Amino acid sequence: MADHAVVVIGTGPVGLSIAFELATRGIDVAVVEAVTVGSGAARRNAGWVVPIMAAPVPAPGVVGKAARWMFDPTSPLRVAPDLDPRHIAFMIGMLRASSPRRFEHGLAAVGALAEGTLDLFDAYAGRGVDFEMHRDGVLLAFTSHGEFEAHVKEYLDAARVAGLSTPELLDAAGVREAEPGLADSVVAGILCPDQMHLNPDSYVDGLRSAITELGVPVLEGTSVTGLSVASDGITLSSSHGSMSALQVVVAAGVGSARIVASAGQRLPLRFGKGYGYDLATPPVPLRRAVYLAEAKVAVTPLNDGMRLAGTMEFGGDPDRVDLRRAAGIITSSRPYFEGGIDTDRAPWAGLRPMTPDGLPVIGRMRRAPGVIVATGHAMLGVTLAPRTGQLVADLVEDRQPPELAPFAVERFEWGHAARPPANEVAN
Description:
The relative contact order is 0.21. The protein contains 11 helices and 20 strands. It has helices spanning 13-24, 62-69, 85-97, 100-114, 117-126, 145-162, 172-178, 200-213, 256-261, 323-333, 381-396; strands at 4-9, 29-32, 48-49, 77-79, 133-134, 138-142, 168-171, 188-192, 196-198, 218-219, 224-230, 233-238, 241-250, 270-279, 289-292, 297-302, 305-314, 348-354, 361-364, 371-375.
């Protein structure tokens, strides 16, 4: 007899949301975590809930920007000169996915996945999950009219696809009215009124408390080393022995690829390293979260201070904190604030699970139907966590949500999704 009906591997926002959804449906579930609850990028992110920013990372023009920024240690995007064949194949995959047609396909898919996610966070709060949440909108601040004009259509289209309120286009005076603390260098803005942000620590801790109250065991310091699939269930080998389950959900972020490989599934998952700083004393008071568009920095006002997060680094050493790249967040943010910005705090880094096409992986493994994968959410792990929890719980209950088709586990295999989607011609 299996130890549990379902075992969820991973305690990021996605894994914990899945466990919460399963537990509230009365399903016997346990959670396994290699380190501690919320380790890795679960707590090291901007905490934004922004379906309007659901565009995949491989976008038209991003490869050219990466090439221009390659030798700038403080640039928002860096591709390390890594000779690992998996890294090279991943970057080629991103290049192929950055065509306009594939980008539009990805935007529509993730937009549909994100639909209703804002209401789900309110529902979580109503169901007893205690976390710090701010529903004050998000302002995109621009110091260049050209950059502003280049992004207007993107955000208007994203709002339409995801069924969101139409963003407000602001001139310099409108920006100053919305956020008086921004500098005169900010000449335009896009205000997205129905977006929100939360404190990542509080969200992780709130979900952990909620599932504990529902009787869900959480096994920390237990690294899963392999999955053995049989007709009557799955055995998980771990650093603390073995356990069994009827179904397993792999939501272990970047580490998911290693786990599913033991069950015979190749998953081209790589990390995208992001950096950030936590400031105890904000340089200016902010009414809402602000995106510094040219700097590509997310500024999150919280009850206990301010968080700055940004950059994307592919390849290289996952454990190394590059102080020059981290410092670029502070340097590039200064022009947006009256009086500048500075800190004497050490930066942090988090590894975001990335796929070559920029879309999450959510679905059952065809060759091991008892294994469900939920990873690859990139910078949208917080945004998409509750919705992913709902959909994975549906899978556990033997329902197949149609909106999961673009996120199939096997889509990277030859003969499956190596070819473009049906409504797309090859580029």
